[in-house]
Amino acid sequence: MIDSLFWLILFFLALAIGWGLGRSGISWSARSHGSVKPIPSYPYVPLLDEQSDEALQRFIRALEINDSTLDAHLAVGRLLRKRGEVDKAIQLHEGMLANRQLTNAQSFQVHLELGRDFLAAGVLSRAETLFLELAEEKAVRLAALKGLLRIYEQEHEWSKAVEVCERLIAEDSYYRSVLAHYFCELAEQDTRHGRPKDALGYLEQALQADSSCLRAFLLQAKLFSRAERHADAFSALIQACRLQPALVGSVGNDVLEAAGRSGADLEGALRAVIGEGRGLPVTAAVLVLARQIAQRSTSEALRFVQEHLRAYPSLLALKGWVELCQICGDSGKVAMEDIEGALDKLLLVDFRYRCERCGFAGKLLHWQCPACHGWGVVKPLY
Ligand SMILES: [Zn+2]
Description:
Blueprint: H1 2-24, H2 44-50, H3 53-62, H4 67-82, H5 86-97, H6 104-121, H7 124-134, H8 141-155, H9 158-169, H10 174-192, H11 196-209, H12 214-226, H13 230-243, H14 248-262, H15 266-277, H16 283-294, H17 298-311, H18 315-328, H19 333-349, E1 353-355, E2 361-362, E3 378-380
Antiparallel strand pairs: 1-2, 1-3
Zinc ion binds next to loops.
């Protein structure tokens, strides 16, 4: 089914190329044959029938490359690559490059596609060489730099990725957040190699690139906590929670511990998080705060959660309320336990994180979306 769909698409692409040739009057001309348009006898027929290397070679030889047909050529190459037939895509693009009539601009386009072929084939050194050269050509600079990033990400060459990313920032501010993630990767590398000071330096750079880099705050908190700098750890955690209040659900215990060890004003900090965020995302913060309040007044804590639950009902809020009821008094405890067990199951089957960009959903927090490769786009649900 997919196969026949592919060949159908190729058929229409070839028709488009034929149309381009017809318009440019290079290979055949309807006008010269009178009023009846001739049916083009090539190049799509052998490609459709044989699906072989020979067919591909004939396809390459048969087509003249000019401005009207270049896009269709490139589209065929992309289709081949997408189908996993990278060797054929390489053949096609190398065949096109053998054509001496290519203009510089056309040649850059084809080289770019060839670089992408090598990237897809895992021949990273050849892809890198091509992209490095193309990154100096204005017309394809952006695409070449993006290609380089994909290579350095695969190779975990984060320093090189940083250099390339800094060049991309001028074109697209999205790369500020990507750059911050590269610094975080460097920081994680240094942490693994027992160089926490260097790691903290990279985290500073991450936050300079993107002051709302959640990951940098969380990594900072971890390093500060290991160095027994609990007040710094607490403040980094709270910064992270202010950026993304739903995060309190997963780092709530760290927040409590850092506050306990540093004597920081936990209640004030959580109230700030709740006040800024509001709505469903602050549910986790409301629940942590309620436990604090419960230490001095159980009725105030229950009222606090109940108000939030009524305004912003959610499974998480309901579960928190049930838990709090159990802590605050044991009336109807058995029924409460049943409810809580059921809710636990509901929460488990649910996806906890979703990519804002492509909708990818999963149970783990990925810094780089496995589906669309976007950085910092997977967000916790609540
Ligand atoms: Zn995604």
